[in-house]
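Convert to structure. Protein one:
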Amino acid sequence: MQLSREEVTRIAWLARLALSEEETTRFAGQLSGVLAHVQRLAELNVDDIEPTAMAAEAEGNVVRADVPRPASPQDEILANAADTEAGAFRVRAILEETA
């Protein structure tokens, strides 16, 4: 499937990307290649393959049990903070109000 420049422009707009003319042309080819590869994968017969959670079997349980446990002491958690206030992390404001 060959994507047109208009389709790439639309995809870029949806992703909120500003592409130059050169990038639009380059990405049209690259995205078309990706779609062609996905199409080839879709043609594979996987009827005899059991669904798995992992591609390769891992030894032992790779996910720890979700067991409640006490939190670390607050002073220990805040020990490496750049700034604290009233027992909490203090961070610089990152949002500005604009008129």
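Protein two, convert as well:
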Amino acid sequence: MIEHMVWIKFHDGVTDHRVAKHMAALAGLRNTVPGIVELKLGKSFTDRSAGHTHGLIVRFKSKQDLKAYVVHPNHVAVAEPLFQDADVLAMDIEC
């Protein structure tokens, strides 16, 4: 399995409403991008994340599925506005 982990730190001034729209868009990827086995996201409940407030974990069967996800138009349409409103860190691991 491949796990794609994303840490999100929204910029100052991004409203709660806008954050909720980003999170809903991310959640919607599970139904619009092929190859996703599982998608989880949520808000951090500790202060151990260096200011990152939200996280996303997407699981795939293969590296090829991850590669297809990254360039999929539905993913790009969600990621580009997120990058404008937040600092984003991503890591991909094979487990």
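The helical segments are 16-32, 63-71, 73-85. The chain has a mean pLDDT of 97.
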